[in-house]
């Protein structure tokens, strides 16, 4: 059974940092593309960042480029999202996702998703 479990969310102030973690089990972590999406209240889910399985290619949404960084530790089967200089508009539920095909992940059609974790940024 595949599981993606996010942790590290919470309430912070504008300008603060947070690091989200996504612990993965039930699949061969090193062969999957990993990514993060988010969904704010009243809005559609949107792509934040994704990286292919060798982490040689990483794509960021324009809204987070330069502030957010995705990383992965294949030995720990864990992906991370370091979020710096947080803004109130970053407030959303953040979802970790995995798929064998990066383009499928990027388009929001991943096979596997976490349950989501709330990030709230106050002004």
What would your notes on this structure say?
The protein contains 1 helix and 11 strands. It is mostly beta strands and 123 residues long. Strands 2, 4, 5, 6, 9, 10 and 11 form a 7-stranded mixed β-sheet that branches. Strands 1-3-8-7 form a 4-stranded antiparallel β-sheet, with no helix packed on it. The radius of gyration is 13 Å and the shape is globular. The N and C termini lie far apart (40 Å). 33% of the residues are buried. The mean pLDDT is 94.
Put the structure in a nutshell:
The chain is mainly beta and 123 residues long. The chain has one helix and eleven strands.
Layout of helices and strands:
Elements lengths: L2 E5 L2 E4 L4 E8 L7 E7 L6 E6 L6 E3 L7 E6 L4 E6 L8 E8 L2 H5 L5 E2 L3 E6 L1
Parallel strand pairs: 2-11
Antiparallel strand pairs: 1-3, 3-8, 4-5, 4-9, 5-6, 7-8, 9-10, 9-11
Largest sheet: 7 strands, mixed
Structural class computed from helices and strand pairing: mainly beta
Radius of gyration: 13 Å
Secondary-structure element order, N to C: EEEEEEEEEHEE
Average pLDDT number: 94
Secondary structure: number of strands: 11
Enumerate how many helices there are, as a single number.
1
The percent of residues in helical segments reads under 10%
Q: Approximately what portion of the residues adopt beta-strand conformation?
A: over 45%
What are the main properties of this structure?
1 helix; 123 residues; 4-stranded antiparallel beta sheet; mainly beta; 7-stranded mixed beta sheet
């Amino acid at each position: 059974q595949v599981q993606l479990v996010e942790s590290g969310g919470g309430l912070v102030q504008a300008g603060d940092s947070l690091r989200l973690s996504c612990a993965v089990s039930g699949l061969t972590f090193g062969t999957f593309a990993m990514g993060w999406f988010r969904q704010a209240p009243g809005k559609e889910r949107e792509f934040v960042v994704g990286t292919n399985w060798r982490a040689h290619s990483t794509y960021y949404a324009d809204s987070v480029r330069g502030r957010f960084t995705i990383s992965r530790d294949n030995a720990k089967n864990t992906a991370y999202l370091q979020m710096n200089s947080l803004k109130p508009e970053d407030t959303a539920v953040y979802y970790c996702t995995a798929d064998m095909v990066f383009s499928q992940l990027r388009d929001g059609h991943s096979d596997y998703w976490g349950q989501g974790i709330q990030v709230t940024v106050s002004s």
